[in-house]
Structures are given as structure tokens and as C-alpha cells.
Amino acid sequence: MSTFITSVISGLGTGAVYALLAVSFVIIFRATGVLNFAQPGLLILGSFFCSYFAVSMGLPFFVAVILAMIVVGVLGMVVERVAIRPQVGRPVFSAALVTVGVLTILLIVAFRLFDSAARTINDPWQLNQLCLVSSETGCAIPIYHNTIARFVISMAVLALLGWWLSRSRIGLAMRATSLDQEAALAQGIDVGRMFSLSWAIGGALAALAGILLAANGSVVQATDALFALVALPALILGGIDSLKGAVIGGLLIGLVSSITSTYQPIHASWLGPNFENVVPYLVMILVLLIRPYGLFGTKEVQRV
Predict the structure, then answer these.
(1) Is 275 helix (H, G, I), strand (E, B) or coil?
(2) CA distances from 176 to 198, 261, 301 (A)
(3) Rounded to the nearest 10 degrees, what angle do helices 279-290 and 231-238 cross at?
(4) pLDDT of residue 38
(5) Which of the four, 94, 263, 281, 300, has the lowest number of CB atoms within 10 Å?
(6) What is the pLDDT of residue 116?
(7) Rounded distance, CA 158 to CA 244, Å?
(8) Residue 145: how many CB atoms within 10 A of its CB?
(9) What is the pTM of this model?
């Protein structure tokens, strides 16, 4: 039981980061209708800039986090204005392909910035542990501080974002734009501004996810950007246009991956190593076979 509880807690911590990434996808998709495949590039640049501010410049960690989120958020706005805005009115598929090209450019930039050097973000948690339950032989249920930090920070940011979207004027304007762009224009909403803002928020969330991913005492590498691709099953599982679904999908994928990582090598070793990386996509396929729009996605109704 202690092993199971430890696995669940670890899964919730990782799942919270998946939820952050999935929400960053949803924010951009709801505003622009574009599935942004450039998010992995924004994620890894977030961890790079945090490392630069915290280690190279010696700034306090949380100041470095905020600055990195701002820089990547501004970068997201630039990408939207330069690469995505000209695609307005064209097929959505072409805009999605443009984001693939943007991802390639961002990854090349990331590899040049990292310059094959190992970097850290100097996070305050490192590999420190908290003993949740003690036993006669030692700690029965250890919890890493970074796991707690990932879950608490991610959930707090997502809760604050949900409150802001539902209560502020700009948040309501973004919701109106996501529902009907023409109606939003008719009401005097600057739709272009909402597009840029959605990319800024999506970039900032991706940067924070990259920082929390690196906050485990290990080195940061440009290849860590591939972590963002695991958020796609969480996104599709919850529903590609549902913020609530993105959060629930992220937590579920984190739990399933962690439990698989704990028990699969013991009870199903014949599946091979690293099978926990395959499980999210298997879960996604199974859910789509039953609910093609995800658990909370909006069903499209076509009248003939």
C-alpha cells in the first residue's frame, strides 16, 4: 500500500505539469482554432531562461521564474503576430503546419542556446524528501519536495487563471472570442489582441511547465522539450476545447503513467522498458474509441 500511495502522489505531481501544458494548448486553440505544436519549443526555452536568470545572473529563483514566463510569453505574442496572424482566413490545417515549422525553429534556437552544456535552474527543492508516514525500518511513504511544489504551484496557477477568465473584462472578452469571433467583433472586442494575449498566456504556462519539470535537482537539456508531447494525450483525453477537461486529463495521464512505471516492470516485464511512455497514448486511443470528442469536449453538430 505504501508503494501505491507513493506512486499516486508522484503521479499527481507530474500530472499537474501535464495539466499546465494541456491548458496552454486549450487557451490557444479556443481563441484561434489552431492546435499549437510549437509548445515544446516554448517549454524548453522557459527552462533555459529560468536557468540563465537564476544561475548565470544570480537572481532569486522565483524572480527568475516570473522573468522567464514573461520572456516566453512575449515570444509567444511575437510568434502569433509574425507567423500565425497571416494565416487568418486560411484552412486551419495550414496554420497547424506553420506551428510545426515554428517548433523546428525554436528547437534549433534552444540547441544553440544550450550549446551542448548541462544547465540547472537552481531550484530550492532539489532532491529533498518529506516523510509522510514513518515505520520501524525507516520512512514508509517518502514524498519529494519538488512533487509537492509541482502540484501546489500548478493547481494554484490554474485556479487563478480560471478565476481571471471568468471574472475579469479581458477574460470575458477572451471567452467571447473563443465562442464566436464575428459576434465578438460586433461587440467591439479587439479579436487580434485576444489572439496575441492567448499566445502570451499559452507561452507563459508552457514556460512554467518546463521550469517545474526541471525542478528536480537534475540538469536541463534541449531534448526535454519532447516532454510536452505527452500533454497531447491529456489534451485529447479531456477534450481539446475544455479547460476543465485539460486539467482532469493531465492528472489522469500522470496517475496512469506513474502507476504503470511502478508496477509494470514487476508484473508485466515482457512489455519492455519505458512502457509508461506508451500508456498515455493507449489510454487516449481507448477513450477516443468511446468518446471521439474526449471526456469534456464539445460535440460538433452538423445539420444536413
Answers:
(1) helix
(2) 13, 42, 20
(3) 20
(4) 87
(5) 300
(6) 61
(7) 10
(8) 18
(9) 0.91
Q: What are phi and psi of 10, to 5 degrees?
A: -65, -40
Question: Which pLDDT score is estimated for 218?
Answer: 67
- CB of 159 closer than 8 Å to CB of 165: no
DSSP 71-129: HHHHHHHHHIIIIIGGGTTS-HHHHHHHHHHHHHHHHHHHHHHHTT--B----S-TT-E
* Sign of the four-CA dihedral 47, 49, 55, 60: negative
Q: How many CA atoms lie within 13 A of 141 on its CB side?
A: 12
Query: Which grid cell sits at 283?
Result: 489510454
CB count within 10 Å of CB 300 equals 7
Neighbours of 150 (CB within 10 A): 27
Encoded amino acid at 36, one letter: N
Alpha helices by DSSP H, listed for 215-273, are: 231-238, 243-267
What was the pLDDT predicted at 83?
86
- Kindly state the cell numbers that stand for 140: 514508509
CB 284 within 8 A of CB 34: no
The closest alpha carbon to 253, from 225, 232, 275, belongs to: 232
Please report the sign of the dihedral spanned by the C-alpha atoms of residue 110, residue 113, residue 117, residue 118.
negative
Q: What's the pLDDT at 120?
A: 82
- Kindly list the averaged pLDDT for each block of 10 residues, start to end, along the chain of length 304: 84 91 89 84 88 88 93 92 80 82 87 74 82 74 87 93 86 77 77 87 92 78 69 84 88 90 84 83 87 76 50
